[in-house]
Amino acid sequence: MKLKTLMLGAAAAFALAPAAFAERGADGEVRIIYWQAPSTLNPFLSGGTKDVESASMIIEPLARYNEKGEMVPWLVEEVPTTANGGVSEDLKQITWKIKPGITWSDGTPFTSADVKFTYEYCTHPAGGCAQLTKFEGISSVETPDDMTVVVNFENPTPNPYGPFVGGESPILQKAQFESCLGEAASTCTEQNFNPIGTGPFVVDEFKPNDVITMSANQNYRDASKPAFAKVTFKGGGDAAAAGRAVMETGEFDYAWNLQLAPDVIAEMEKGGKGVAVAGFGPLLERIMLNNTNPDPALGPDERSVIRPHPFLGDPAVYKAMSMALDRSLLVEVGYGKAGNVSCSWVPAPAAYAITVDGCDVQDIDGANKLLDDAGIVDTDGDGVREKDGVPLSILYQTSTNAVRQDFQAIIKEWWSLIGIQTELRNIDGSVFFGGDAGSPDTFQKFYADVEMYANTFNGTDPQAYLGNGLCDKAPSPASDWQGENISRFCSEEFDAIHAELSQTADMAKRAELAQSLSQMAFDEGMMIPLVHRGRLSGHSNTLGGVKLNVWDSELWNVADWHRIK
């Protein structure tokens, strides 16, 4: 199956789309399946893509990115720039002008006060916000009138589009969430499960880790949209079942993240009910290395907080683990044409990607020599090396998915060849990516030595995304286990380079700094990159308006979806 074929199939489907809709709700129901089920509709309380994207149908940002990676105005009249006067010459202020007439789904006006409140919500010192890096460097948010939002930065900020832009940074209604600040954030079940929004749909019922039912927002700003009156958003199951439900049985209209082998996708398309669509953005499958100690003997609030890890902080160990991998085989087994070998934390856009010598070459002998030279050897003959008396025995966890379990089995075998013992664990994706502070099984808690997953970022500038490596962005009890520095990596040099990036305007220099951060993540034990993945989803032949977006939520233009008659 060729990626080009997928894209051509999608283009053919788009060509059948009518230019406009006759009336709101005329096309009945649309059925969406995400095999990782949403656990909240508040993306500030979850770093999981499935939560961010389901919420994007309901709550929206001021601006977002289209399918080409271009920033487009959404709830505002235009994207502020220095050219139009919206960004100050000293790069310390950005002014957003809200479009007149936008209302919340309850009919009340959408105003600048809601935008300012969202900033206060995410940055409250007593709360935990999964998207805190979006608000890095802000000194204040002002609201000179109901239609104007002024964001002030502490220093010149060449990329002022972190806050309120993209599906990860939508606006919350102040009236609904004002009692949910700080420690109360995670306790506001009604608000987090039923947010009032400006988007094309409203929540009828939300069953966490199961199903969401929605109806067309009768106060949506375009009177002819959405075309669908109802949405059934089903969660759970697995990628294979989701793909079959669209392309073979026609039970669903859209299936997200079909993380399946290429031959499996090709076989599904023979069902004739739908097509797969794909595109390459910054999505990277990687293994995160725990920089802290996940020993179960420690208390629940100490695991993955106390430093250091007994052996993963040794460069000889994590470099040998990386050298033992055959990434080309992983691509072949898991993704085919929808995957590329990469050791770059940010594999796209190309300007920010790094090339690592030897990334595409497996070197078992070299890995063993590296460990031998470091004095990390098997002293008792059981086949497992020890460092300072501690066996190199690791717990390797990931979400439940056929491709990921294949990867685990292969990588376990490779690591055994260099004297590392590996226990495998997989967790239901709805739980693993759920962000529930009370669960021991989330990827944020990271109660394991290594864990594998993929994530990405909205837009084409990686500044906020790279900020997920900052020391103060590590999930902990104090942040209610929110935060995106999953490995608990901490480097003063990394923090300093990121601070320079945040104040650098020259694009060539920004690329150089971003590449330095990506290189540090690889060289200094934050992660072991595996595969640059294409985003692959499927939609029915009768669903028009779909434009796969690798730079924002895949559901970014759900208001334009319609039934092809």
Shape: globular
Mean pLDDT: 93
Helix content: 10-25%
| Termini gap | 28 Å
Tally of DSSP helical segments: 15
CATH top level label of the domain at 280-461 and 518-534: Alpha Beta
Characterize the main sheet. Answer: 11 strands, mixed
Q: How many DSSP-defined strands?
A: 20
SS strand fraction: 15-25%
Indicate the low-confidence ranges by residue numbers.
1-20
Q: What is the radius of gyration computed over CA atoms, rounded to a whole number of angstroms?
A: 23 Å
Structural class comes to alpha+beta
What is the H level of CATH, i.e. the homologous superfamily of the domain at 280-461 and 518-534? Dipeptide-binding Protein, Domain 3
**CATH topology of the domain at 280-461 and 518-534, what is it called?**
Dipeptide-binding Protein, domain 3
- In the CATH classification, which architecture of the domain at 280-461 and 518-534 applies? Roll
Describe the structure concisely:
The protein has 565 residues and is of the alpha+beta class. It has helices at 3-15, 49-55, 112-123, 174-177, 189-193, 239-247, 262-269, 315-323, 327-334, 364-373, 402-416, 429-432, 463-466, 492-502, 507-523; strands at 29-34, 63-65, 71-73, 93-97, 138-145, 148-153, 201-207, 211-216, 230-235, 254-255, 274-289, 339-341, 386-387, 390-391, 393-399, 421-427, 450-455, 527-540, 543-544, 562-563.
